[in-house]
Amino acid sequence: MSGVVIALIALGYGAALFWLAFRVEQSKFALSPRWRAIAFGLSLGVYCTSWSFFGAVGTAASRGWEFLPIYLGPALLFLFGGGIVRKLLRAGKAAESTSIADFLSARYGRSRAVAVCVTLIALASAIPYIALQLRGVSLSLTALAGDARPDVDLLAIIITTLALACFAILFGARSADATKGNRGLVYAIAIESIVKITALTAIAFFAF
């Protein structure tokens, strides 16, 4: 597949997610509680990142069931730890927390030192993982294009990073009000999760 076709598909997919999130944010239409629950459940698929196609799928292909612990922990948490999750949600809402740093600092008397410390730890932990996701994007493009061109890979990573940053700012972090939901972001991730499920199912089918 040519690089131009891949770029057009990626741009179209990204534009569709932007459009969906924007329309949901602007619309007053509300789904029924049942469909909202389904959308929220699908949005948890954000846990399945771009590296999952190389890490989890690669591990499953080479080592069999050794990939299972990657998803076993979160699955067990939501299956049997619902009470813990609800308590955390209630505590976070009561403290009007918008981040893990806000939440933990609120538990220690709104300590700024705790907030700064947690933020630095989260940042130091997230940067390598984000780099891994971007590496996954680069490897995906290389696999689809059938060749390796460092200049093209670097440009693709830069564009992907900027697009993700814009999406996060526009539909995620633009409001500091903890009482406002991010419907556009949740629904866009839900649609993306359907794409992920379809892709992983297709991979499993062809591998089988």
Using only C-alpha atoms, the radius of gyration works out to 19 Å
Supply the number of helical segments.
9
Beta-strand level of the residues, as a percent range? under 5%
Distance between the termini: 24 Å
**Alpha-beta content class:** mainly alpha
Low-confidence stretches at least 5 residues in length (pLDDT < 50)? none
> Percentage of helical residues?
over 70%
Shape: globular
- Number of separate domains: 1
Order of helices and strands: HHHHHHHHH
Largest sheet, if any? Answer: none
Total beta strands? 0
Mean pLDDT score: 78
Question: What assembly state would you assign to the polypeptide chains in this entry?
Answer: single chain
Task: Summarize the structure in short.
Helix content is 75%, strand content 0%. By secondary structure, the protein is mainly alpha-helical. The chain has one domain.
Describe the model.
The chain is mainly alpha-helical and 208 residues long. The chain has one domain (3-67, 127-207). Helix content is 75%, strand content 0%. The protein has helices at 3-26, 33-43, 56-63, 69-80, 82-94, 100-107, 112-145, 150-171, 183-207. The longest helix has 34 residues, at 112-145. It is globular and about 55 Å long.
